[in-house]
Amino acid sequence: MRLRIITALVLMLAPVTGLVLWATGALQRVEIESEHWRFQVRGERADAVPDVVFAVFDEGTLEELGEQWPPPRAVHAEVIDALRARGASAIGYDIAFTEPSAFGAADDRALSNAARRAGNVVFAATKAAPDGGTETLAWLPGGRAHLDRIGARAGYTGFQVNRDWPVSSIPARWSGLDAFAVAVAAQAGMAVPDSVFADGDAKIDFAGPAGTVRTVPVGDLLAGRAPASAIRGKAVVVGTDLTTPVDRLTTTAPGNDTLPGGEVHAQAVQNALDGRFMSTSPWPVDVLLIIAMGMVIPVTGLALRRQLWAATGGFAALLAFLITAQSSFDAGVIIPVITPLIAFGVSIAAWLVLSYVRADAERHDLRRRFAAADEAAVDQVLHGTQVGGDDPADLIAPGYHLVDVLGRGAAGVVYRAEEIRTGRAVAVKVLAPDVAGDPGFRERFRREARVATQLEHPNVLPVFAAEDDDEVLFMAMRLVEGGDLAAAMRAGGPLGPAEALRIGDAVASALDAAHARGLVHRDVKPANVLVDRAAGGHVYLTDFGIARSTQEGTISSHGDVLGTAGYAAPEQIMGEDTGPPADVYGLGAVLFAMLTGAAPYARGTAGASLSAALTEPPPGVPGYPALDPVIARALARDPAGRFASAADLMAAAHRALGG
């Protein structure tokens, strides 16, 4: 359930993040700036402005006229007359005339009369009065309605953006005025449909950078150097491109240079004449794109279940989106790219987190099931596929690569393994969950396993590592090529006295060395005695990692391992404190089993065996009556009545058997 909730939250994170950014407009400026790069990709289209000319007052014109800026308005009147004479379809004057001329009223009348003669002039304005009039030439007869009297009109020359944002669009109307481009198109006989401004403004479809619109210096126009064919039938925008004052704007147009304000208007006028600006995609499309880009990686990953496939699918989706976005842009429809890309980026981060969480959950589940010896989990670890990019054989016991099963017992399963750092073959025992899951046992294991790894004795199986790693308790030990004593007796029956004494001596030596270090084994039995046939029958006592330290005190009764029926001392069976005498008892029981083939008090059930050990006298040793007193003392119910050490027990056995 927890993993499902995390998965659902991760799936929602990227789309929700993208939609919040989109709805709040937090990335609007970046989105607008991205249009510049999309224009760059689309490239210049110089032939896309056939119907507009930019007549410019530049430094060369002022020098030729011998004027400074601003020149007398009579000069502007000459410009309007020259354009009228050459057949301009409309004249858009991107120069404001909102105060009386410094050269007198006659200068203003000259400009007014030229506009009257042309009958198709649009003057720049930035605001209108409540009655619809403007301040342009408003001191002449008619006041704010003067432009109407002379057949001229005003157009709003501002742009629908924050001042420090790139210019990308024009409004339909502002402060009661039509946009400058719309007004110029109207003077040329083209009414821009309202649908162009469905979103309140219209995105300029920039054909190219500065110089894309055919530019005619005003000096050439007045000197007759500009042919009539360059003007006839075209809308002309008159503006400036001077050092002072500067009228250049940062736009989304392609190229790395700013554009003169007049050329920005000129490109917008061409859009208006064509009746087509850039349009934006409907909001449902935007929402679907953001959701899709925010979910493509997690959904692909969950469906395909592989990191590489998820990355491939995500890259393909990203490429398809970018191609679609640019194709749509080239066709004149702007779809958002920044917000979907942000959602895509968040989805990558979210997927990495989800992958880690899911892989970690899979690892935990695999380790839990493996520790319980679940067949499917064991098969997956030894022969299966990767989990979260890891070899499952490396997940159970960190630092060790499990290879195959060596043996199973009540306390756990032993695996053949390879130590990753050194490459040496080792045996790894993974303790069973019912043992490892006991909090008291885990606490004792953490403390005593460290002692076991430091216990060096020829007959103590070396423990390289003993770890409590989350769900798994494991011990890495020397790999012994050969079975344990219990398996040997099942296969070959009881041992002869000489072999029994040899093995008993080795076990006794190991036990006394452990007791000297403060460790009690508490589970001495044939299954914990290994005979290395490859080393001439060398004997090892194993499983010291789960022994109890006499110096640590009792952890808790439920934290103690009671031992194995037939080999557990009475005090262990009763849950009382145990010490070295319990191991002496276990060694006596092992000696009995080696000579007879069965444990003392062997009964049909473990319960019956435990009960017999508490109530019946020690049994005799069939065939070895001289050993009966030795076994009786070793198996005494009172720990104080047993031999003082394991070596004392074996010395008595040697004397009894004449070995």
Description:
By secondary structure, this protein is an alpha/beta fold. Helices cover 44% and strands 15% of the residues. The chain folds into four domains: 99 residues; 236 residues, no CATH class; 118 residues, 2-Layer Sandwich (Phosphorylase Kinase, domain 1), CATH 3.30.200.20; 173 residues, Transferase(Phosphotransferase), domain 1 (Orthogonal Bundle), CATH 1.10.510.10. A six-stranded parallel beta sheet has the order 4-3-2-10-1-9, sandwiched between helices. Strands 15-16-17-19-18 form a five-stranded antiparallel beta sheet. A two-stranded antiparallel ribbon has the order 5-8. Helix 4 runs parallel beside helix 5, helix 7 packs across helix 9 and helix 10 runs antiparallel to helix 11. The longest helix is centred in the middle third of the chain and has 34 residues. The radius of gyration is 48 Å and the shape is rod-shaped. The two termini are 66 Å apart.
Which regions have little confidence, pLDDT < 50, spanning 5+ residues?
547-561
Number of helical segments? Answer: 22
Provide the number of structural domains: 4
Largest sheet data:
6 strands, parallel
Shape summary: rod-shaped
Residues in helices, as a percent range: 40-55%
Structural class: alpha/beta
Radius of gyration: 48 Å
Total strand segments: 23
Strand order of the largest sheet: 4-3-2-10-1-9
The residue-averaged pLDDT reads: 86
